[in-house]
């Protein structure tokens, strides 16, 4: 009886130790909380402070007339090599600036416009292109999930939004699950290495930091196209 009790205690300790080690090694356990930048939420992931989400009140900035000149969106779309049958998700779609440019190119496919703010979803639905183009579908996401079907996406686009994810590790796992085996993730972020880019520090990312974070969620960098004026165009695939 004593031997049996000792064995049970021993097994219990092994389970506890294994659980603790798993928690230490888990990327989700790397979230830390401390005071940081005024523009940050005080939550850190892999050495980077997460920025505040831009609210729906910033729609005017998203739709600014000079955006094409500043970001060369048309060149970004060429980088994506969108095919007529592509199924694409714009994560953090905002008011649909990129969505309605991609939809005609994927005329036989579909473009999911995903955002966590209902006001942004409403703005997309209020756009006349929403009904005219016919292949745009809005999706209300959450802080941890894009809420998209598994293994359905050819391409995922994230423009200046990843750095605002409150749960980047979980969101990337959700995106990875929704991507097809040969799907591509286009991560567009203002270049953190370039001090001349006129964007607040927490709203920029370096290639090194992006690669580190996406690797933790099972992605690898295929290439980083440097043909945009201010932004990285990093293309990731499943690792």
UniProtKB/TrEMBL annotation:
It holds the Pfam family Methyltransf_31. Residues 1-22 form the signal peptide. The keyword Transit peptide does not apply. GO terms for molecular function: methyltransferase activity. Residues 86-212 form the Methyltransferase domain. Keywords: Methyltransferase, Signal, Transferase. One of its GO terms (biological process) is methylation. InterPro entries: Methyltranfer_dom, SAM-binding_MTase, SAM-dependent_MTases_sf. PANTHER family: METHYLTRANSFERASE TYPE 11 (PTHR45128), S-ADENOSYLMETHIONINE-DEPENDENT METHYLTRANSFERASE RV2258C (PTHR45128:SF1). This is Class I SAM-dependent methyltransferase. It comes from Winogradskyella alexanderae. The lineage of its organism: Bacteria, Pseudomonadati, Bacteroidota, Flavobacteriia, Flavobacteriales.
């Amino acid at each position: 009886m004593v031997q049996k009790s000792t064995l049970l205690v021993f097994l219990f300790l092994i389970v506890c130790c294994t659980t603790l080690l798993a928690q230490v090694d888990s990327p989700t356990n790397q979230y830390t909380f401390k005071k940081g930048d005024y523009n940050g939420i005080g939550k850190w992931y892999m050495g980077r402070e997460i920025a505040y989400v831009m609210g729906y009140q910033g729609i005017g900035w998203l739709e600014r007339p000079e955006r094409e000149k500043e970001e060369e969106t048309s060149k970004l779309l060429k980088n994506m090599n969108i095919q007529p049958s592509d199924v694409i998700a714009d994560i953090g779609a905002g008011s649909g600036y990129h969505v309605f440019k991609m939809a005609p190119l994927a005329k036989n496919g579909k473009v999911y416009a995903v955002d966590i703010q209902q006001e942004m979803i409403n703005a997309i639905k209020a756009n006349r292109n929403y009904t005219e183009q016919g292949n745009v579908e809005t999706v209300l996401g959450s802080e941890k999930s894009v809420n998209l079907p598994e293994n359905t996406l050819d391409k995922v686009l994230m423009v200046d939004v990843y750095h605002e994810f409150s749960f980047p590790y979980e969101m990337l796992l959700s995106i990875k699950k929704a991507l097809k085996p040969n799907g591509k993730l286009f991560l567009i972020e203002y270049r953190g290495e370039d001090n001349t880019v006129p964007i607040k520090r927490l709203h920029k990312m370096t290639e090194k930091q992006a690669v580190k974070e996406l690797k933790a969620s099972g992605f690898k960098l295929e290439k980083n196209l440097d043909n945009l004026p201010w932004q990285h165009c990093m293309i990731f695939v499943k690792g």
